[in-house]
Design brief:
This protein has about 210 residues and is mostly beta strands. The chain has a single domain, classed as 7 Propeller (Methylamine Dehydrogenase, Chain H), CATH 2.130.10. It has 1 helix and 18 strands. The termini are far apart. It comes from Chroicocephalus maculipennis.
């Protein structure tokens, strides 16, 4: 006897006012009032990360119903990409319009986890807008891509507080998406998609025709 399919239930999802109300619509800079635009978003089971046009990262903890704020020192510039990772520690990578990349290692109340907020900076290899970020599952590798086609690999040692970065690939067009798994980095640009094998440092193109 064939089983009867369960009925499909439609749900209506409303705006997250509890989240939006915790983010200011304007900030005061001297005598000027500056409108705050939301420019980047990522979510997982623990957090909702929202980047803004004023260089402020708003991080909402879903378990504690709390909003925290993180920012870059110095010049206020738009955040263009955020990427969360939940592994042994909770991490969030942030990229900006000028090519700055930072990693925040978040504080956890769980035993044996990180008890002090730490920040790691990817030192000045990118010079233009960050368009993609990708983590390895264990949080030891971060790949960042920009709109000039540069891809940077950053090796993080969270115990020692060290971040070493190097340029691993340079494409002739903007990077639009990165994904990493099992020593293979999937790269999509405005012109093509490729697989970059990080151990052999070799490239294999997906498909033969360039994108129009």
């Amino acid at each position: 006897m064939a089983s009867v399919a369960s009925p499909v239930i439609f749900k209506e999802f409303c705006p997250l006012y509890y989240l939006l109300n915790a983010i200011p619509t304007k900030v005061q800079k001297g005598f000027r009032s500056i409108v705050v635009y939301l420019t980047a978003l990522d979510t997982n089971g623990d957090y909702i990360a929202v980047g803004s046009s004023i260089g402020m990262l708003y991080l909402y903890c879903r378990h504690l119903n709390q909003m925290k704020k993180y920012n870059f020192e110095g010049k206020c510039e738009s955040i263009t990409f955020v990427k969360l990772l939940s592994c042994f520690d909770d991490l969030v990578a942030v990229g900006t319009a000028s090519g700055r990349v930072a990693v925040f290692q978040l504080v956890s109340s769980l035993p044996g986890r990180n008890k002090q907020l730490r920040r790691f900076d990817v030192a000045g290899i990118h010079k233009s807008c960050i368009t993609a970020l990708a983590w390895s599952p264990n949080g030891m590798k971060l790949f960042s891509g920009d709109d000039k086609g540069k891809i940077v690999y950053s090796a993080l040692d969270l115990d020692q507080g060290i971040c070493n970065s190097s340029l691993v690939l340079e494409e002739p067009s903007s990077i639009v998406q990165l994904d990493y798994n099992q020593k293979v980095l999937l790269v999509s640009t405005l012109q093509r998609t490729l697989l970059f094998y990080t151990e052999e440092k070799s490239v294999k193109q997906v498909g033969t025709q360039p994108r129009k």
